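User: Reviewer 2 asked us to show a designed sequence for the structure in our supplementary figure. I'm pasting the structure tokens here. Could you produce the per-position amino acids so we can include them in the response letter?
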């Protein structure tokens, strides 16, 4: 009994790169496209970076995840204004067009970053959605394409659509999906600005375009202002406000559903 009592007083060791506390549960999902259904989407995640200003942390070598199935990603900090997902290989994507045609693609996303003007506290369950509903331009499939590879015009357009439409949502019911209510509540973080296809050469943008290499840079063109995040603080994590993300009620911190590119699709 004495030994058990002593063990109960010993703090468990921290995993390297993980902040002390209760980190949120993060799931990455592919947004539903228009004119097709996603049959499979897999990406090899090399790194997750989160934080704000000088207070940032990363977790590396996460491995391959299924964007249409069950996955769980580590979030190294609870206080953040930037969250970035780095990929070490192109996303393997299979679409089924409305005419029954199978379309395969290898999309070199490199880094997907979502951000806000200032830091806030996150906990509970979150969903990082790659792209926004309707991200697939119907004219791409209308061309008859069946294979999309880096370097093609179709590749550049799809990469730009996925990266510029990505956003972080509260998963209020903890089902690893984004339902209509959660989407209407708005985003916590979202891509900094719309990126046109001309911004991508082979589908890979430089770090200056994403803000991933310098999370403390000016977030003035981000998807949310400081009022949206429920914090009037600066970008330093130590001066953050508090945003409870364990519930679906995030209307004051989110954006209008139109910001997600969806009228009302549901999960």
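Assistant: Here is a per-position design you can include in the supplement:
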């Amino acid at each position: 009994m004495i030994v058990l009592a002593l063990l109960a007083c010993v703090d468990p060791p921290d995993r390297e790169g993980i902040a002390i506390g209760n980190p949120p549960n993060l799931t990455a999902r592919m947004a539903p496209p228009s004119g097709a259904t996603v049959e499979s989407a897999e990406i090899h995640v090399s790194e997750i970076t989160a934080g704000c200003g000088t207070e940032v942390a990363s977790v590396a070598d996460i491995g391959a995840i299924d964007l249409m199935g069950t996955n769980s990603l580590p979030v190294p900090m609870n206080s953040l204004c930037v969250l970035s997902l780095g990929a070490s290989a192109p996303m393997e994507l299979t679409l089924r067009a409305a005419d029954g045609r199978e379309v395969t693609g290898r999309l070199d996303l490199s880094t997907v970053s979502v951000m806000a003007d200032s830091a806030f506290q996150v906990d509970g369950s979150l969903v990082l959605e790659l792209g926004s509903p309707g991200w697939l331009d119907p004219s791409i499939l209308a061309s008859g394409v069946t294979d999309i590879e880096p370097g093609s015009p179709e590749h550049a357009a799809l990469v730009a659509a996925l990266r510029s439409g990505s956003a972080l949502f509260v998963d209020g019911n903890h089902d690893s999906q984004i339902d209509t209510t959660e989407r209407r509540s708005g985003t916590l973080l979202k891509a900094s600005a719309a990126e046109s296809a001309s911004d991508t050469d082979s589908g890979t943008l430089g770090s200056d375009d994403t803000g991933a290499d310098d999370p403390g840079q000016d977030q003035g063109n981000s998807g949310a202002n400081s009022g949206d995040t429920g914090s009037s603080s600066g970008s330093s994590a130590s001066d953050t406000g508090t945003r409870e993300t364990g519930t679906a009620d995030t209307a004051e911190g989110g954006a209008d559903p139109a910001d997600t590119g969806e009228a009302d699709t549901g999960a």
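For the response letter, you might also mention the following. The chain has one domain: 16-211+222-259. The CA atoms of residues 101 and 146 lie 8 Å apart.
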